[in-house]
């Protein structure tokens, strides 16, 4: 976790939101003025005491009259209410408007993040950040920032008023504030360290708990659940112990700040014992200080509390910066249209997470041909497919379709030409019909049904409680792996795009479903540029081209027979799999 | 362990959870009371100072050291007392939270598995981690703050009456007005809060869905329309915040202003009473200064009421977990089975959510036999395995071990008898070796090698950076589903129980060698009873018994040759499998073929 700095965080929020800060500043000013009205009764009391003690301030002789006092107080009260009304309204509305801009721009940015970055774990983290953390920033920004500024403003004005009465005493009263502030600054690091330690411990414990809950079945089967519960008990005990010490280190300095600030009163009294001051200062001035001291000290004490809350919000803001750090894909101003649908990789290299995934790949894939990508696990087969689907852009070289670099084609046009059937691209939350029509929006009901029949999913869909209108995905009905696969094949059939990317998924389905899927794939493969990652070599032995990958490099390519004769990696893989052919049924 | 009922109200639940710490909490609250008194001392000293200045100004400087000493003592006392109160309250809060978490985990350890499956790990984690964490704010901070916020005004009121009853009344007169404003302000707050929470939840759901579905939406050119949906939700959310703000600000601003409005009466009344010679100026000053201590705490109380609903909601989420029954424990009889026993399922019926999953299933597993369960997905194969492992309890009928009901066995005895590798593989953070030896930490190197070889995981494990000592968490997503399954199978084989259940655990073998796997299993682990749920038939000929499950019933059982003669489903399955294995995609130019292998 990087350093939390309230000021930097606030400025970043303003900059990111793309909205003007001025209206909020006016709101904050109104809030400061509102709180300054709190000084009025004490000032009036001071003026009243001045008249009583027969040292009236010039022009304030009326303060002796209860009637005038009441009138002045009523005016001040009404003024305070009006300022509170205007200030609160403006501060709330403007804060919400600023965070709205921030949210919208962040989400807009997420829209162009490479698909490859949106792996499920990452999505989980991102989702937490753009929901929980942004909510925390919003609520504290809306509720605490104005209170914080208003408290500081009141404190400052009170001190100025006192200084105008007797600057030397004001100096004494505020003498310890720099020291207290120093305590807070120093404590910032303590606070951060404490927060970080707690965060780490908390995450560890919750990780352990997630593991425990996820593995509870297995743990019980192996009679290890109790042992794990004991580990958790120990972790909870650790958390308890650490939390207490962290709270001491985190809360202690704030307590110290408050103590030091309040000790300003002590310094004030002690200053009076100095002979130079003691005899010189008139009693009414002292009275002013005693009346107003807590209007200077009190808001500072409040401000310390608000600051702690602001720092929490800033921790969330720092996390949000990580989301901002994701680089969006560059889209061309004018998209070039490919003339045909041959695909080529031209000296493509790509690394991800510090690991080279593909190295100097050059491939030509003719239009309307079947190309298989095979190789041991971890060879980079899926990554190759992902680059074609522009889940990422390559680090070096270019992926082209019809001679046009995918980056110049633009994502939108690319996805009009490309259909994909694989794990990452299956079902979104919505009804089945919405998912199918995503392939072709204007498809008639009959077209949709035909596609479903061809993909062997019409039967199971029609058996569902609400048929094609059943909601599916994480927020709806859970489909099995085979069902999802068939649904995405039906959608690809509807979409009828000239280029098809296929990841042979070996989901646990029974032989009957497997056969249906195969039938559908055959229909889908017709008249298209088809690029397929294959695990079972026998499924692609008739492909026009087989590309053999190993550790991110193309090691062989060609037709099945040619590759077998080469006696290389492909031949070895084929030999290993050939022994697995089931007994033919007579 | 205390037994809770599912319908226990949230405050009641909190009361129960705090049971053994209440006395300490009371001490913390007493200290808070003393701290409140200490907090009033500085005002009393200022009162004395003003009094001196008004009556005997020439003596003022002399009294200063005396006042300063008192003030120093008062401030120290105040901070020490508050420090102590907060320390105790935090101590208690953390203790209660640890207890709550331990109770929740203990309940989960014993929870019925079907219930557990229905919960979703996210919800459970939320309860044990976040919902318990929410208690901290309430127990550690609010208890002290609210006590202080209630006691301070009371003490001040008493002090004011002692000072002068008319001034006291003048201060307190604003009370009903403030109360009225507060009620006006609070009216509809609950409703607004609900609406706001709902809008927040809606927005969050749309954002999360949007992110999660982005890849599909983008590939199918649908991201724009969903982005619009998101924007409209965002707009709706901000319209709501705006309308709530516009509605609440007038009253809320009145409320915050009224809290300082006691001055309206006190000062003029004080001036008037002074003019009549009935109060001293310092009395008026003190009434003025203390007045703000009466109503400002109300602000904290009102904030408290806004922060409490999420705490209660968290408690309500915990209630069902805490209400889980604890099954009666059966004493272990340390039964050991040197020979695999005869296992029978007799007349098993089981239902999920009113739907019958298994009906009238009876079957028999001979000691040392290899049994394979086949059938369409959803037919109930896994359910049978779950029942045999004791994860599910059938409605009627049961599992019998050598003629005695398995339900009579203690957990520890049952797990020594039956081992199972589940469909979803759970590898915990630790080394591969630790994962493999979960059931038998003392397994020998030779045992591990044998298990890995049979599970076809030898090459896989040797290919890992540190072999057996590779940390699972460092591998991240590098282990594929099939690879994890192989490790799970090896772990099961190492458990060395007489009966071994493999639930879809051979899915990995579709690209490798299921036949070799079955063969190796027989060779390397003779004399064990195996039950394998499979969806591929390669190598099935060597099974001693094949059980065909269709729509929750056992439709046929026997050897391969027998079933090929008499079971229609089995025959068609065999045909499909043969056709699948021969399937090949050919050319995109329209002349594709489906050849039969």
Provide structural commentary.
The complex is a heterodimer of chains A (586) and B (597). Chain A has 2 domains: 9-176 and 263-324, ABC transporter transmembrane region fold; 343-578, P-loop containing nucleotide triphosphate hydrolases (Rossmann fold). With 586 residues, chain A is α/β, with parallel strands linked by helices. The model of chain A is unreliable at 582-586 (pLDDT under 50). In chain A, α5 (120-143) packs antiparallel against α13, α8 packs antiparallel against α10 and α18 packs across α20. Chain A is 63% helix and 11% strand. With 597 residues, chain B is an alpha/beta fold. In chain B, α8 packs antiparallel against α9 (223-258). The longest helix of chain B is centred in the first third of the chain and has 51 residues, at 60-110. Chain B is elongated. The two termini of chain B are 63 Å apart. Mean pLDDT of chain B is 84; it is low at 588-597. Chains A and B meet through α3, α4, α5, α8 and α9 of A and α2, α3, α5, α8 and α9 of B.
């Amino acid at each position: 976790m990087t350093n939390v700095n309230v000021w930097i965080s606030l400025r970043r929020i303003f900059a990111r939101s793309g909205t003007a800060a001025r209206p909020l500043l006016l709101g904050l000013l109104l809030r400061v003025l509102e709180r300054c009205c709190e000084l009025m009764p004490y000032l009036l009391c001071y003026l009243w005491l001045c008249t009583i003690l027969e040292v009236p301030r010039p022009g304030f002789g009326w303060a002796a009259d209860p009637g005038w006092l009441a009138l002045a107080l009523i005016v001040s009260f009404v003024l305070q209410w009006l300022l509170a009304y205007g200030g609160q309204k403006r501060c709330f509305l403007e804060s919400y408007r600023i965070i709205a801009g921030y949210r919208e721009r962040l989400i807009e940015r997420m829209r162009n993040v490479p698909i490859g970055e949106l792996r499920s774990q990452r999505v989980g983290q991102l989702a937490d950040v753009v929901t929980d953390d942004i909510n925390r920033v919003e609520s504290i920004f809306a509720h605490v920032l104005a209170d914080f500024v208003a408290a500081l403003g009141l404190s400052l004005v009170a001190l100025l008023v006192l200084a105008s009465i007797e600057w030397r005493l004001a100096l004494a009263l505020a003498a310890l504030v720099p020291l207290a502030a120093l305590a807070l600054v120093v404590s910032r690091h303590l606070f951060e360290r404490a927060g970080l330690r707690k965060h780490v411990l908390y995450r560890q414990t919750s990780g352990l708990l997630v593991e425990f809950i996820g593995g509870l079945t297995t743990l019980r089967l192996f009679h290890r659940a109790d042992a794990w519960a004991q580990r958790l008990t120990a972790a909870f005990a650790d958390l308890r112990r650490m939390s207490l010490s962290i709270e001491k280190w985190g809360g202690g300095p704030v307590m110290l700040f408050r103590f030091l600030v309040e000790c300003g009163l002590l310094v004030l009294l002690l200053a009076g014992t100095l002979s130079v001051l003691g005899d010189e200062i008139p009693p009414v001035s002292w009275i002013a200080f005693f009346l107003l001291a807590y209007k200077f000290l009190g808001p500072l004490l409040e401000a310390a509390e608000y600051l702690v809350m602001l720092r929490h919000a800033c921790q969330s803001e720092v996390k949000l910066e990580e989301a901002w750090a994701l680089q969006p894909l560059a889209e061309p101003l004018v998209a070039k249209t490919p003339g045909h649908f041959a695909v080529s990789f031209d000296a493509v290299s790509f690394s991800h997470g510090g690991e080279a995934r593909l190295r100097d790949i050059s491939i030509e894939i003719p239009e309307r041909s079947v190309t298989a990508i095979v190789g041991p696990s971890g060879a980079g087969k899926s990554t190759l497919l992902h680059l074609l689907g522009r889940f990422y852009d390559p680090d070096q070289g270019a992926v082209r379709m019809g001679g046009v670099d995918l980056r110049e084609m633009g994502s939108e046009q690319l996805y009009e030409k490309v259909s994909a059937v694989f794990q990452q691209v299956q079902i979104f939350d919505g009804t089945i019909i919405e998912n199918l029509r995503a392939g072709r929006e204007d498809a008639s009901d009959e077209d949709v049904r035909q596609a479903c029949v061809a993909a062997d999913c019409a039967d199971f869909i029609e058996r569902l409680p609400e048929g094609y209108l059943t909601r599916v995905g994480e927020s709806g009905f859970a489909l099995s792996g085979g069902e999802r696969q068939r649904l995405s094949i039906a959608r690809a059939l509807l979409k009828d795009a000239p280029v098809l990317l296929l990841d042979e998924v070996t989901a646990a389905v029974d032989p009957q479903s497997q056969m249906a899927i195969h039938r559908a794939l055959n229909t889908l493969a017709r008249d298209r540029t088809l690029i397929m990652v294959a695990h079972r070599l026998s499924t692609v032995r008739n492909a026009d081209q087989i590309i053999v990958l190993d550790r991110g490099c193309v090691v062989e390519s060609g037709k099945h027979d040619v590759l077998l004769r080469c006696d290389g990696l492909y031949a070895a893989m084929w030999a290993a799999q050939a022994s697995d052919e089931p007994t033919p049924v007579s | 362990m205390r037994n809770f009922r599912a319908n226990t109200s949230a405050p009641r639940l909190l009361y129960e959870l705090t049971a053994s710490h209440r006395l300490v909490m009371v001490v913390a609250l007493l200290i808070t009371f003393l701290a409140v008194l200490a907090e009033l001392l500085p005002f009393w000293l200022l009162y004395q100072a003003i009094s001196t200045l008004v009556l005997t100004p020439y003596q003022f400087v002399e009294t200063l050291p005396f006042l300063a000493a008192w003030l120093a003592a008062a401030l120290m006392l105040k901070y020490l007392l508050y420090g102590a109160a907060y320390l105790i309250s935090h101590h208690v809060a953390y203790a209660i939270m640890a207890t709550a978490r331990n109770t929740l985990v203990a309940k989960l350890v014993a929870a019925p598995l079907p219930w557990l499956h229905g919960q979703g790990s996210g919800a459970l984690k939320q309860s044990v981690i976040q919902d318990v964490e929410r208690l901290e704010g309430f127990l550690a901070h609010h208890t002290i703050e609210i006590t202080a916020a209630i006691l301070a005004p009371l003490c001040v009121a008493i002090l004011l009456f002692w000072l002068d009853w008319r001034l006291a009344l003048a201060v307190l007169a604003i009370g009903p007005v403030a109360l009225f404003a507060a009620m006006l302000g609070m009216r509809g707050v609950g409703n607004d809060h609900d609406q706001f929470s709902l809008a927040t939840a809606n927005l969050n759901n749309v954002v999360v869905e949007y992110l999660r579905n982005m890849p599909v939406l983008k590939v199918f050119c649908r991201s724009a329309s969903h982005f619009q949906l998101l924007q409209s939700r965002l707009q709706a959310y901000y319209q709501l915040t705006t309308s709530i703000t516009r509605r609440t600000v007038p009253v809320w601003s009145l409320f915050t202003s009224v809290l300082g409005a006691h001055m309206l009466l006190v000062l003029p009344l004080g001036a008037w009473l002074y003019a009549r010679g009935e109060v001293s100026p310092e009395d008026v000053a003190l009434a003025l200064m203390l007045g703000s201590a009466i109503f400002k705490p109300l602000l904290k109380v009102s904030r408290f009421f806004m922060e409490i609903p999420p705490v209660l909601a968290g408690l309500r989420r915990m209630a069902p977990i805490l209400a889980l029954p604890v099954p009666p424990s059966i004493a272990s009889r340390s039964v050991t089975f040197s020979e695999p026993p005869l296992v029978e399922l007799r007349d098993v019926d089981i239902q999920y959510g009113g739907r019958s999953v298994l009906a009238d299933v009876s079957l028999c597993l001979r000691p040392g036999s290899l049994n394979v369960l086949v059938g369409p997905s959803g037919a109930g194969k896994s359910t049978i395995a779950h029942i045999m492992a004791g994860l599910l309890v059938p409605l009627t009928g049961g599992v019998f071990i050598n003629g005695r009901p398995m339900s009579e066995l203690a957990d520890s005895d049952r797990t020594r008898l039956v081992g199972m590798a589940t469909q979803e593989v759970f590898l915990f953070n630790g080394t591969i070796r630790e994962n493999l030896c979960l059931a038998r930490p003392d397994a020998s190197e030779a045992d591990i090698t044998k298990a890995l070889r049979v599970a076809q995981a030898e090459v896989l494990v040797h290919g890992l950076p540190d072999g057996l000592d590779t940390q699972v968490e460092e591998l991240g997503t590098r282990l594929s589903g099939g690879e994890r399954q192989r490790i799970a199978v090896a772990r099961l084989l190492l458990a060395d129980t007489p009966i071994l259940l493999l639930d879809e655990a051979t899915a990995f073998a579709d690209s490798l060698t299921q036949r070799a796997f079955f063969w190796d299993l027989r060779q390397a682990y003779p004399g064990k009873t195996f039950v394998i749920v499979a969806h591929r038939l390669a190598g099935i000929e060597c099974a001693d018994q094949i059980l065909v499950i269709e729509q929750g019933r056992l439709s046929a059982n026997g050897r391969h040759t027998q079933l090929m003669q008499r079971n229609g489903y089995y025959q068609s399955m065999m045909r499909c499998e043969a056709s699948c294995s021969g399937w090949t995609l050919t050319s995109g130019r329209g002349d594709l073929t489906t050849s039969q292998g």
